[in-house]
Structures are given as structure tokens and as C-alpha cells.
Specification:
Layout lengths: L1 H16 L7 H9 L11 H21 L10 E3 L9 E3 L5 E3 L18 E4 L2 H4 L7 E5 L18 E8 L4 E5 L2 E4 L2 E4 L12 H5 L9 E2 L4 E5 L9 H4 L2 E2 L3 E10 L2
Parallel strand pairs: 1-9, 2-13
Antiparallel strand pairs: 3-4, 4-13, 5-6, 5-13, 6-11, 7-8, 7-10, 8-9, 11-12
Amino acid sequence: MIEQELKQLRKKMETTVFQYAAFSEERKQSVLKNIKKNPSKKKPVFLSMGIAMSISVSLLVVILIFKPLFVPTSSVITDSITSPDIDRVLYEEDMILYEWISDAMDRGDHHFYKDLLVIDPTFYELNGVNRGDVVYFTYPEEVKNNPTLVDRNNEPKSISRVVGLPGETIYLKDAQIYIDDKKLDAFYGRGLDNVYNRPLFEDAKEYDTEKYTIPEGHVFLLGDAWWRSFDSRNFGAVPIENINGKVLGYRKWK
């Protein structure tokens, strides 16, 4: 009886616990060493009970130590860094003062176009591009010659928010951004959190997109006001080399 139970236990360990990569062969053999492979057929009852208790304790320790391995992968991606607030920053000589005239980033309070924006053109020379960044960028080659896309400086540039990073698969469904099939938990990840996205409240599915895998060296840009924005949903991912600076905030007057 005990031999049969041990055999079943070893089989269960092989098919459940030892399948995890963190369980090295050395750890595996150490656990199996405590499971006697050839128990005596005439073990006293109290000794058999002791073996069973020993095995139970060993298994419990294994489960407690490696409990994180059994937790399913999170179903969300969280941006806990990016703030919905727009800072006021001092303009310095090597920065760009930009007057944006679009409401494609509006969330209900004339966001990004009620005052001059300060852009740091050298920010990404020393820093990587992060999800949530609002960037000043040049349109991709295939659309930048469209005369309707030029700004007040007669340049084919705009601002938008980075929502997808190189190699990720992104799509919109039911007014929610998904990254690699995980919900993007951020104020800009849920379209219905933006009171300015009025059309989404009427028909969110109209703004659903197909899955799109972002090429290496590119980012996916999206305006906060989905119904007003001209962004990567229209022209695809933007090469990182097309990013001309980071929007730091509104100009702060001394």
C-alpha cells in the first residue's frame, strides 16, 4: 500500500512540481531522495505513518518555498509612474517652446493646448523611451508630406503618447488598450475614463482595432482623445529615431 502511494506521489511530483524551470535537477533529486523508492513490504504501521508524515511535510515545504511559481501570470500591465497631471516647467534656451493647436490629447480641460508646451529635444539622448511619455515626433515618411499634417512652424510634426513598446502586440477592444493580451491599467489605457471621448460612450466597438505587432526600434503612439487623434492607428508604429523630444509640460513663468 505504502509503495503504491509513494509511486503515485512521485508521479504527481514529476507532473506538477518538477515542471517549473526554477526546480533544478539537484533540487529534484534532493526531494526524491527523501521518498524511499524501495520500502520494505513489512513496515510497522507506526513507521509507515511516519514516512507518510515526512513526505507530507517535505511536500508542504516545497509548495511554500516555490509558491510564487504557481501564481498565474498577471492579466494586467500597470503604469504607476505616469501622472495625468501636466507640470509647469521653466523654459531653458536649449528647449523648444511649442504651441499645439489640436485637441487630440484633451481629457476635458483643454489638455496640452491651453498654454505653450516646453519640449526637451535632448531628453532621449540620455534616457530611454517609456510607456506613458508624451513625445514630440515627426510623422513617418509615407505620411509626412501630407500638407494637412504640418504644424504652425510648417513642419510635419505632432505630439502624442507612447502606449506600445518595441516587440509588443497591441490592440483596442471595448474602449480598452491591450498589450500582449493584457489590459493596460493606466488613466490613458481606458478610453471611457476620458470624459472627452464622448463618441466612445455611444459605440466603443467602433474604435476596436486588429492586433498589431510593433517592430523593433519603433513605438506605438496614441492620442488621449481617441476619436480626435491621428496616430499609430492610422499610420502604424513610429521609428524611435523620429522622436524629436519629450513634452515636459506647460511653460512656467518666473
